[in-house]
Design brief:
The structure is a homotrimer of 135-residue chains. Chain A is an alpha/beta fold. Chain A has one domain: Macrophage Migration Inhibitory Factor. The first copy, chain A, contains 3 helices and 6 strands, in the order E-H-E-E-E-H-E-E-H. Chain A has a 4-stranded mixed beta sheet with strand order 2-1-4-5, covered by helices on one side. In chain A, helix 1 packs antiparallel against helix 2. Chain A is globular and about 45 Å long. The model of chain A has no long low-confidence stretch (mean pLDDT 94).
């Protein structure tokens, strides 16, 4: 955690560098601060994964409409203000990135943040320790 | 919202046109009506994304068994009757589409509807306005 | 149910046989027993699907860090002890499988179990009956 998964219709990446967007979104997450000015998301926990769909359908099929869905899953217990800060920052980053494409085509963009309600949670890799001193 | 994400084992699409299925599922969602006869899902919000897995394992590995998982995420607050109407309609569409394939191979088919419990929700594309007058 | 979905950064599968991992994880799920010694997950319901991301970003981008996320979705109502048994067993299987790769690179590994809170659930394939007698 936090994991940001981006699902999108085929062809969206033809008009837009999605790898660059992933990096921007990760940087945006790293920059989020809580009310006390502390980094909200630990550096080693920030992950963005983007997946173009292989098959898709949007709306009533009346045009070549695209869609990008951003789903951020975070741990429980953060404040509503932090949720809003994170969501607004990510949406602003995505909006800016897609601005040129939105001039040329119709695109649905939705961003949602979920608090994980997991009944089991384990981390057992070797990435977090590398960033332990960086928050 | 609503988002229908379809995850399936590799090779299922060899026996079945998944792009056509996505369109049928989207049309099914558009046709769902509530108790008062109103369209449940706004046209501009209907999205179906299908993803074949790159790697998979099913059951005990005793045969080339396939699996398709349909997950529909919708907004909160709709009635149980609407949930059932949407689920039954989507399952009927999928069942009909897979009927030929089910004659030739074993396939697990599961459809679940989740109500999103998101703590942040933003839409910032230009697709919804196009359909605003169509519900 | 249960569905185990594995999402990972591009390139992780270059150092690791992910199809073999899926099979090991499915076998691990099949071997989970509850407090009374009964098989927890019905054979015909065990599914593992793995998806390499097409685009990704991890942490602060300071190295070629990888990430693998295991999300198991199960039905409601199982005990905390069963959740822990399933989670610990799956994490042990994954840890062993990734041990060689963890010698050569940084990899974040997270495993979470969610209880589905679906408002609609239908199974309509022909796979479950094949295993009905096997639990």
């Amino acid at each position: 955690m936090p994991h940001l998964v981006v699902l999108y219709t085929p062809g969206v990446d033809a008009g837009c560098d999605m790898t660059a967007l992933c990096r921007k979104l990760a940087d945006t997450m790293l920059a989020v601060r809580d009310e006390a000015g502390r980094q909200v998301f630990p550096t080693g926990g920030v992950r963005v994964l983007a997946y173009p769909a292989t098959h898709a359908a949007v709306a009533d099929g009346s045009g070549d409409h695209g869609f990008v869905y951003f789903n951020l899953r975070i741990g429980r217990g953060r404040s509503a203000a932090t949720h809003k800060a994170a969501g607004d920052a990510l949406a602003a980053t995505a909006r800016e990135h897609f601005a040129p494409l939105l001039q040329t085509r119709r695109l649905g963009l939705t961003l949602q943040i979920d608090e994980g309600q997991e009944v089991y949670d384990a981390r057992f890799g070797n990435l977090h320790p590398l960033f332990a001193s960086k928050g």
